[in-house]
Amino acid sequence: MKQAPVSDALFQRAQNSIPGGVNSPVRAFRSVGGHPRFMVSAKGPFLYDEDGNQYLDLINSWGPMILGHAAEVVNEAVQKAIPNSLSFGAPTRKEVEMAELIVHMVPSIEKVRMVNSGTEATMSAIRVARGYTGRDKIIKFEGCYHGHGDSFLIAAGSGAITLGVPDSPGVTKGTANDTLTAPYNNLEAVKTLAEANKGQVAAIILEPVAGNMGLVIPQPGFLQGLRDLCDKEGIVLIFDEVMTGFRLAPGGAQELYGVTPDMCTLGKIIGGGMPVGAYGGKRELMDYVSPAGPVYQAGTLSGNPIAMSAGMAMLNFLNEHPETYDKLENTSASMVAGMQRNMQQLGLAYTINRVGSMFSIFFTPEPVTDFDSAKTSDTALFGRYFNGMLDRGIYLAPSQYEALFVSTAVTDQLVEKYVQANLEALQEAHQA
Ligand code: KE4
Fold first, then answer.
1. Which residue is closest in CA terms to ligand 1's atom 24?
2. C-alpha 364 – ligand 1 centre gap (Å)
3. What is the pLDDT of residues 349-368, one digit of tens each?
4. What is the mean pLDDT of residues 318-324?
5. How far, in Å, CA of 18 to CA of 267, rounded?
6. Residue 231 above 90 pLDDT?
7. Burial (CB count within 10 angstroms: exposed 0-12, middle 13-18, buried 19+), residue 37
8. What is the structure's pLDDT at 1?
9. Residue to probe by mutation, ligand 1, list 60, 119, 402, most atoms within 8 Å of CB
10. Residues of the chain with pLDDT > 70: what percent?
11. Per-residue b/e over 217-231, b at no fewer than 16 CB within 10 Å?
12. Is position 145 annotated as part of the catalytic site?
């Protein structure tokens, strides 16, 4: 058992001044037991905590650190920008260059607005859809998480389901009434909702590959079916690519699956580790955004020069090195193949879903294609497995309902270390 007395003491102390001792709920380890490790540094594939423990990182800041931690190309860009002041609150050349780069990389984006988080991006995108269509309702999918905006905390995934509050208190009935939900991968259910609310649905928003109920893959025809339905009904199709953007391909899941939404939201990798979100889409939609149009949205630190420097360094690298995605595919496929071999050896048959460098193991033998099937997982067993991996220096997402994110810093040797730890942690978790 890796001891972490300094982290434990810090966690105790943190509870006096921060709700739950953390600045984002899923970090608190509530669903897996034990106490969170307080990190002091990270480099490449490794995290280092306050007690000097080293961990192979498979969260990578929940996605952003696709090149591993403290990537030279990003750090150099930030160090170069810092002496010129951290913020102006005025337009800069970098924002124009960043917007042009995103337009170049992301198929659906003709114009883009920078914000400071994925939550801001999704909140703003549905406001534009509502302003443009004059309609009030949105359709989201059970288990998808689009940040903590009121409209989305209905059947929400990620930390909301991890902590048992998929429908958060504090969200008004009026707001909740305008959010309709359907099971992921169930096109008929969406068509029924759209028919029953004809002319009232402004947008359908989804994670084109879901990462917030664990990893759930869109079934053949699902994304295209939503595209066709939106075309038919005049509904704005929004892909929330905060997780998948720049991760599954330079142009995200919309490039990988060849389905182009009307708008898309971005975050995580786009900032290279700095707080950045963005929403963009067709010119006719984005020209509704203030000050070009009537839909108001603003932000003091939007397009911040330091964040733009980090984000542009990251996106330029990914744009100029498409071979990065082949490397991530090979590494991730090797990790999952090793896990499959381990389960065969142990006579276990749990479900593993993977797309590119995102994957999840579900402690259920059922195929996992939506929220209900994800919830057949044994979360207590997941908790034991998680802690077994942590003890072996492997840092996983502390929830059954999250995806893992592989970075280019994971070497073949580290794949072997991961696979060996997986074997031992699976064995140990089943002995308890
Ligand atoms: P942020 O507001 O946390 O930057 O982004 C919200 C968001 C929006 N859309 C998708 C698809 C997302 O995955 C997220 C945030 N992801 C979670 C991880 N499941 C962030 C981790 C956390 O909440 O601490």
1. 24
2. 25
3. 999 999 999 999 999 999 99
4. 98
5. 25
6. yes
7. buried
8. 59
9. 119
10. 100
11. bbeeebbebbbebbe
12. yes
On average, the pLDDT of the chain sits at 97
Our answer on whether the CB atom of 159 is closer than 6 Å to any ligand 1 atom is yes
**CB burial string 369-398: b at 16+ within 10 A, e below:** bbbebbbebeeebbbbbbbbbbbbbbbbbb
* Contacts with 397 (C-beta within 8 Å, 6 or more apart), sequence order: 26, 58, 59, 62, 403, 404
- Ligand 1 and 242: CB distance under 6 A: yes
pLDDT band at residue 52, thresholds of 50, 70 and 90? Answer: very high
CA angle, residues 221, 223, 225, in degrees to nearest 5: 60
CATH topology classification for 72-320: Aspartate Aminotransferase; domain 2 (3.40.640)
Q: Is 359 helix (H, G, I), strand (E, B) or coil?
A: strand
Q: How many residues does the chain have?
A: 432
pLDDT tens, residue by residue, 388-416: 999 999 999 999 999 999 999 999 999 99
Given the residues 57, 240, 262, 370, the one annotated as active site? 240
- Determine whether the shortest distance from the Cβ of 147 to ligand 1 is under 6 A: yes
Whether the predicted model's global pTM rises above the 0.90 cut: yes
CATH number of 5-70+322-431: 3.90.1150.10
Both tokens assigned to 156: 């929400």
Query: What mean pLDDT is predicted for residues 338-347?
Result: 98
- How confident is the model at residue 426, as a pLDDT? 98
Place of tokens 């997402």: 397
Q: Which value, in Å, is the radius of gyration of the alpha carbons in the chain? A: 21
List the chain domain ranges.
5-70+322-431, 72-320
375 in catalytic set? no
Task: Please determine, for residue 76, whether its predicted confidence score (pLDDT) is greater than 70.
Answer: yes
Is the Cβ atom of 143 under 6 angstroms away from ligand 1? no
pLDDT (0 to 100) of residue 335: 98
For residue 166, pLDDT over 80 is answered with no
For ligand 1, is residue 23 a contact (CB within 6 Å)? no
Does ligand 1 lie within 6 Å of residue 244's CB atom? no
Longest CA span, the chain: 62
pLDDT > 70? residue 171: yes
pLDDT at 162: 85
Query: Distance from the CA of 157 to the center of ligand 1, in angstroms?
Result: 10
Contact partners, residue 401, CB within 8 Å, separation at least 6:
143, 157, 158, 161, 162, 212, 213, 214, 374
Cα–Cα distance list, 123 to 183, 237, 275, 355 (Å):
21, 14, 16, 26
